[in-house]
Amino acid sequence: MGGAAVAVLAAAATRHNRAPLASLIYRVARGLHDASAAAAAAEEEKAGTQSRRRRRRSSSSLLLGPDFPDTWDTPPRAASRTPPPRDTGADYDCTATIIDGKSIAEDIRLHIAEEVRQMKSVVGHVPGLAVVLVGNRRDSESYVRYKTKGCEEVGIKSLLAKLPGNCTEDQVMDSVSRFNEDPSVHGILVQLPLPQHMDEERILSAISLEKDVDGFHPLNVGNLALRSRKPLFLPCAAKACIELLLQSGIEIMGKHVTVIGRSKVVGLPTSLLLQRHHATVSIIHAFTTNPEAITRESDIVISAAGVANLVRGSWLKQGAVVIDVGTNPIEDPTSDYGYRLTGDVCFEEAVKVASAITPVPGGVGPVTIAMLLSNTLDSAKRVYGLSD
Ligand code: GUN
């Protein structure tokens, strides 16, 4: 039963003062959604045993979340007065499952590479991604290197406009305009942060909506926030968090998810996307008092604060799922580069409390890049009339 059919049935029941019936319809529909997702997962599993290299990226509509309307169940009066028993985790002896983002990303890339090959044989073109990199921040340079390498691996053409940190805003705008007009470019990404003297919003708004593979254009962000609308692109890190949860079979609907951070790149779009998946979302930011009291009540914690080891084991409920988006450089004289990357979560502590956790590196990062490639492929498919 589609979401629209459910809405019509349930609305009719509500109009005729049949609130319990309406509620039942939604519950059945949710069950069906779970069942169809489970059936799809079982199919995937079957295919996976035949060939491990068959894990696909989740479809765009699956990542955008099921389209259910809000209906609040009124709890029975007596029950609502009795607080639920506190989960003390007393009989819980857990070492978390490590969610292997590297392997998930590899499978998604293999699937994208196959689609790119098919596109080339059918229309004679491959998708193209253009990156604008301003200045010489070491972290930005290495992110862009990973993105370019990802393109190479799947057969996506990549173009790079590298501008000095002291260039003018208009020079960046010119690069964006050039890529907007280039028909071989299907995705444009301006690597953030930009130097302080530039108006980031003006530059991001200049990217053609149809090529905004980062999903940072205000119209794409607005359409993500409005549940009745569909953005053309979902921001890659937010999409990666959902993909990791879905691929790991972790239920989102109805769960209490806390997102740490509210940046345009990760925190904000992730919190919006989670709501489209019907999670109850708390957002923690720098001004939140007593953040650990909120995370301790959460079934899923997604951290994108950019602060190494912010989230301690004591911040987590027993059995919580932890998605660590942080990539913080910390000094490490034993490393070739003199530093290594660490997450926002104190992994050694969290792994003893959580039921599943993403490592850093090898968790969210590679899947985020796979999502960028996937957005670029989707954009090219739209242009060549090959969309599903
Ligand atoms: N800087 C850090 N992450 C990102 C990203 O996902 N996209 C862009 N454009 N800049 C970033």
Account of the protein in words:
Helix 1 (3-15) packs antiparallel against helix 2 (19-50), helix 6 packs across helix 14 and helix 10 packs across helix 14 (364-383). 45% of the residues lie in helices and 12% in strands. The protein folds into 3 domains: 3-56; 97-102 and 233-368, NAD(P)-binding Rossmann-like Domain (Rossmann fold); 120-225, 3-Layer(aba) Sandwich (Rossmann fold). Strand 9 (328-331) and strand 10 form a beta hairpin. It has 388 residues and is an alpha/beta fold. Bound molecules: guanine. The site of guanine (GUN) has 9 residues, from strand 4 and helix 10. Guanine (GUN) binds at residues 143, 189-192, 214, 236-237, 265.
What are the defining features of this structure?
alpha/beta; six-stranded parallel beta sheet; methylenetetrahydrofolate dehydrogenase (NADP+) activity; 12% strand; THF_DH/CycHdrlase_cat_dom; 11 strands; 14 helices; Methenyltetrahydrofolate cyclohydrolase; Rossmann fold; three-stranded parallel beta sheet
Question: Could you give the topology of this structure?
Answer:
Layout: H1 3-15, H2 19-50, H3 60-64, H4 77-81, E1 97-98, H5 101-123, E2 128-134, H6 138-154, E3 157-163, H7 169-181, E4 187-190, H8 200-206, H9 218-225, H10 236-247, E5 256-260, H11 267-276, E6 280-284, H12 291-295, E7 300-303, E8 321-324, E9 328-331, E10 339-342, H13 347-350, E11 356-357, H14 364-383
Parallel strand pairs: 1-11, 2-3, 2-4, 5-6, 5-7, 7-8, 8-11
Antiparallel strand pairs: 9-10
